[in-house]
Design a protein that fits this description.
The protein is built from 18 helices and four strands. The chain has 359 residues and is mainly alpha-helical. Strands 1-2-3-4 form a four-stranded mixed beta sheet, covered by helices on one side.
């Protein structure tokens, strides 16, 4: 009796209900993980207090639970907090309930290191800049929903060296083995959206790698070893056909990859740069708006966070990436002469070697 009722209930779900329920399920999983982590942390802190006490350092909403030591964690927190606060805005307040666990240790002793479960262990003479870097790159903020995490390819975290990161993305646009990325570099905005994974497509392979040469190069350069040994070499004939020029074989191999394995045209750095621009434009509530609507498509969420259209956002992203073009390496006028001189020196040394003498 219950099974027919269950079937009717499932059939009555609309297309909009499924994403909403999936988002709710993801939220419950995240809350369960958070509760489990907090329980582990409380247990760890109880053990630490029994063993000799802990200190709590507070800067803004940032909290650091640590064992007593000379480590300059407060100074590091004072440097890290403005960076963290500027990225997460109002959502940074959740860090008051999500402390860092840091266990400094004496690097000059053989005594056992402090045991604080889940803690980041650092030598207590670590410089302030390095400690601040640790805080910025390990922010214990709540994880985003699965859709945002899967699209981005990681967590939303501060970009430590934004200029270098943008320069690296510039190089990707120029050298990526994907027509979408190269067309984006040339100014085709629709291909920028494709390269960033913002355009919905039932066939990402054709969208990202539309040409025969791209698909063959992708198989040969990235997956030759994988397909050569998969299932004891069962795919080797298909791999050889692909290498010989069969696009059907290359396409078959690429479509057989597990979900999520097909390389995207651009890496995490490119998408992270886009997210950071959206958060910068949107102000202190931007990150909250980004994570508050997990059922919406990623382009809509980014536009909502930024307060501008996704086309404007992508256009600004491209402009900032192109502006970050790495400086070309210039050779001074005397450079070739120096190289020629060293070549002559090495040649003379080689000729004086006994290996080249005729006895």
């Amino acid at each position: 009796m219950l099974l027919p009722l269950f079937a009717v209930a499932v059939q009555s779900l609309s297309g909009q209900d499924v994403p909403r329920l999936q988002a709710r399920a993801d939220s419950l999983v995240r809350e369960w993980r958070r509760a489990s982590a907090l329980a582990d942390m409380v247990d760890s802190l109880d053990h630490a207090r029994a063993a000799g006490g802990t200190d709590t350092i507070s800067v803004g909403a940032l909290r650091i639970v640590t064992n007593p030591s000379p480590a300059r964690l407060r100074e590091a927190a004072s440097r890290a907090w403005p960076v963290i606060d500027s990225l997460y805005g109002t959502e940074a307040r959740q860090l008051a309930q999500r402390p860092y666990l840091i266990a400094p240790y004496d690097p000059d002793t053989t005594s056992p290191k402090p045991t604080l479960r889940g803690a980041i262990q650092v030598p207590w003479d670590q410089d302030v800049t390095s400690l601040a870097m640790i805080l910025v790159t390990n922010v214990p903020i709540g994880q985003p929903d699965a859709a945002l995490h899967n699209w981005l390819g990681g967590l939303v975290v501060p970009i430590v060296r934004p200029e270098q990161a943008r320069a690296a993305v510039y190089v990707q646009l120029v050298t990526a083995p994907s027509q979408a990325a190269r067309s984006c570099f040339l100014g085709v905005m629709n291909d920028c959206r494709n390269a960033l994974g913002l355009a919905e497509s039932p066939d990402p392979l054709r969208q990202w790698y539309p040409s025969v040469g791209e698909r063959r190069a992708l198989v040969v350069r990235a997956f030759a070893e994988y397909f050569g040994y998969l299932d004891h070499g069962a795919r080797k004939p298909t791999l050889q056909s692909c290498g010989a020029g069969s696009d059907a074989a290359c396409t078959e191999l690429l479509r057989s990859l597990p979900p999520g394995v097909l390389p995207r045209p651009l890496t995490y750095d490119a998408r992270a740069a886009l997210v950071h621009i959206a958060l910068r434009l949107g102000g202190r509530e931007a990150y909250h708006r980004l994570i508050a609507t997990p059922a919406l498509p990623i382009p809509q969420r980014l536009a909502g966070a930024a307060g501008v259209s996704v086309d404007s956002l992508v256009s600004l992203w491209r402009a900032e990436i192109l502006a970050a073009r790495p400086a070309p390496v210039t050779v001074p006028p005397w450079g070739p002469w120096v190289a020629l001189g060293w070549t002559a020196v090495f040649a003379v040394c080689a000729l004086r070697s006994s290996r080249w003498r005729v006895s």
